[in-house]
């Protein structure tokens, strides 16, 4: 009686699957059957558990991905061309659109800066819509880079702002404050990324390599301006609305599970055009240009207007400035005061 | 080498052996684990939209469990310090159970990070472009994995040496124990710094978070170990000295007192000054307007923690049942306070002032329970295998001659579990 129990403890013998070990010499067939059945049941359960994987649309999720692909900054021009061709082919397969994926580089001696006139903005959100179209943002679920806050005059408390206003604008007693990526000179988001999937370019634009991002969302937690968006599922964009003029680091369609953000429309601005949000603005509230050029409009605004940045205390040094038109005259500087 | 493989094989076989209670427990854990696997597969196919997270609250239950489990992993050192620094003999043989739990806890913590990723299929990028030392997340990857390896080495070496009936080589064991002590502190500090370093989140951007992390971990960890020891004591032949419980109880008591003190300091700062930076705390403790999802949770946590602390101060917790009750209360209370209550409020309101509440989906909860079940499953197996090795029953090829046991006592040895509440 002792021996079999000890053998069970030894675990060298058969009958591991049940509590009572087979007595020596007796039907190992039964125990064999039993363990076969339990192992089979185990595998069946495991198979059932992983069965949802069968629904995975691999072309949508993994298209053009190479396990050993280099980081964007290490890609040879040859590999880059091949990669971009792969992406174009995938866009064609998925949307039936012949897109051109470009890779415009930062222009030397250029540092982009945005200035937004709070005295003029009427909160019409035309910038938001233009941005969504230009940058191939998901319509369902909705992803927008620009948020417009409707804030009661007399406070600057963002928590009292309403981002979901649905009335005629401008509403008396309120002002409007659009917020998007501030392209910080000291960006907390690029600092935290564990794999350098996001970085600041020479012209000050912070970009993301959508094919490198692992989707940990640490950058989203780090951003003090809530400027980063995550693709919680595959983006939904109607084929007819795809903007075929794309760049690798900006408005090409993203895959699910990665971050995205405003890139100051680098596919346009690095080619000398203005960002889509600026072009759409009916009031001229939005100004964009090169801060290193003293004659640019933004340089002039920063010199002459009352300018401020949002959350100066977090030390991010944004390249996105807000300003007012009216100059309150100070004592001794003319005017009626 | 062959001997080692044979050892692993025997451990593997051993994990299937036990009485009906052991098997039921293991079956239950396996089922819950598989449900979790199923839920994760669904999440992998549809994306993280299967969770309750949003762009507003972009970290939820997964990261909450992660931070909590990093804390639990420290349980090990709380046993190690008394034994190796203060030469406490009662705990000597129990250290291994703490170390084993550290292994299980770190594995769970790492799994929680993996399931939180939008693109887990790209994890290899960590090896190709590692933003070290700038990103705190890379620090965390390093300290957690090294801590896992340290504990695997300590446990594996100890158990295998006992199995082969070999003396422990001093240089293969003791130095690692001391490194692991320092390392355990580092895993908390780094994980806390992960959050503390974010200037845009005032709720986290406070120096007190890291010390609070350590204090709460040093109470929840040993509380869990107390429960484990009770289970081992009851269901196996391995007997735990009474004094061990009292030592651990004192550790929990001190750590928890410090934790509550730090909590009070934090709450005072936020509420008395009443600045705009306190918005997240306000959301957590009293709610903002009608948004009060976390309020009942945090007050229950406070109630559980304070009651447990009071019980620990009173002599009544010399009774095993009440000590177990207090430990369970602490484990739940700290889970709420340090998991849910630490992660979620930092996102409410958002940096641009929007208030969106977070509620996990069932799929998300199933993934969480799945990971917990898996962790308990491997911990049960670790303990299941360790006990016969420690008691000299499972040794290299000498089973038949060395331990002539009565069948009853051996059978008793085959039933150990790590339930949260021993009956």
Question: Can you walk through the features of this model?
Answer:
The complex is a heterodimer of chains A (337) and B (423). Chain A has 337 residues and is α+β, with helices and mostly antiparallel strands. Chain A has 2 domains: 2-53, no CATH class; 112-324, Alpha-Beta Plaits (2-Layer Sandwich), CATH 3.30.70.20. Helices cover 27% and strands 14% of the residues of chain A. Chain A has helices at residues 2-10, 28-49, 58-62, 77-95, 126-134, 188-192, 218-222, 266-269, 276-280, 297-304, and strands at residues 100-102, 112-117, 147-152, 174-179, 198-200, 206-208, 229-230, 245-247, 259-260, 286-290, 306-308, 320-324. Chain A has a 4-stranded mixed beta sheet with strand order 10-2-12-11. In chain A, strands 1-8 form a two-stranded parallel sheet. Chain B has 423 residues and is an all-alpha fold. Chain B has a single domain (2-121, 128-413), classed as Formate dehydrogenase/DMSO reductase fold (Up-down Bundle). Chain B has helices at residues 2-14, 20-46, 61-72, 75-85, 95-116, 125-128, 136-163, 170-196, 209-235, 242-273, 279-285, 295-313, 320-343, 362-390, 399-402, 407-413. Mean pLDDT of chain B is 89; it is low at 399-423. Classes of the chains: A alpha+beta (337), B mainly alpha (423). The interface between A and B is large, with 78 and 85 residues.
What is the topology?
The complex is a heterodimer of chains A (337) and B (423).
Chain A: H1 2-10, H2 28-49, H3 58-62, H4 77-95, E1 100-102, E2 112-117, H5 126-134, E3 147-152, E4 174-179, H6 188-192, E5 198-200, E6 206-208, H7 218-222, E7 229-230, E8 245-247, E9 259-260, H8 266-269, H9 276-280, E10 286-290, H10 297-304, E11 306-308, E12 320-324
Chain B: H1 2-14, H2 20-46, H3 61-72, H4 75-85, H5 95-116, H6 125-128, H7 136-163, H8 170-196, H9 209-235, H10 242-273, H11 279-285, H12 295-313, H13 320-343, H14 362-390, H15 399-402, H16 407-413
Helix pairs in contact in B: 2-14, 3-5, 3-9, 3-13, 4-5, 4-8, 4-9, 5-7, 5-14, 7-8, 8-9, 9-10, 9-13, 10-12, 12-13
